[in-house]
Specification:
With 136 residues, the protein is of the alpha/beta class. The chain contains five helices and six strands; from the N terminus they run H-H-H-E-E-H-E-E-E-H-E. The chain has a three-stranded parallel β-sheet. The protein is elongated and about 95 Å long.
C-alpha cells in the first residue's frame, strides 16, 4: 500500500496552494476580498465611496500615536486649604496623599510629613509657624 502525504503538508511553502492566481481562491467571489480589503490609496473606484463614508482626513494616512499609559503614574495630591485634621502632626502619606500643593490658606499650624511638596505650599505652611518634612 502506498502512503500518500496529506495535501496540507505538500502545499507548505506554496503561496497559492494549487489554485493559480491569488484572486482565484479568495472565498469572496469576484468582489476582490471581504470588508475593506482592496480599498487602499490606489483603489480609485473606491475613493468616492470611502470619502463619503469616512471623510478624506479620517481614512487615509496615519493619525496620532498611543501614549504609553503605564509610564505616567497618577500622584494623589491635596491642597493646603483642604488640609483639615484634628492633630497638629500629620503624615499625609498615611492619609493617602503623596504631594502637597499650595492652593488655599492653611486652617492652622501643622507639622506635615509628605513625599512631595510644592514651593508655594511649603512657604504658606512655614509662614504661619508650621513645618514641612519631606519623606524619602
Amino acid at each position: 500500500m502506498i502512503t500518500k502525504r496529506k495535501k496540507i503538508k505538500r502545499q507548505r511553502g506554496s503561496k497559492t496552494h494549487g489554485w493559480g492566481a491569488m484572486k482565484k481562491h479568495r472565498g469572496a467571489g469576484n468582489r476582490g476580498g471581504r470588508g475593506m480589503a482592496g480599498s487602499g490609496k490606489r483603489a480609485d473606484h473606491m475613493k468616492s465611496w470611502i470619502i463619503k463614508k469616512y471623510g478624506l482626513e479620517n481614512y487615509f494616512g496615519k493619525h496620532g500615536f498611543k501614549r504609553p499609559q503605564n509610564v505616567l503614574k497618577k500622584i494623589r495630591t491635596i491642597n493646603v486649604g483642604d488640609v483639615n485634621f484634628n492633630k497638629e502632626e500629620v503624615n499625609l502619606e498615611e492619609e493617602g496623599y503623596e504631594k502637597l500643593l499650595g492652593k488655599g490658606k492653611p486652617k492652622r499650624k501643622y507639622h506635615i510629613k509628605v513625599k512631595y511638596c510644592s514651593h508655594k505650599a511649603k512657604e504658606k505652611i512655614e509662614r504661619i509657624g508650621g513645618t514641612v518634612f519631606l519623606l524619602e
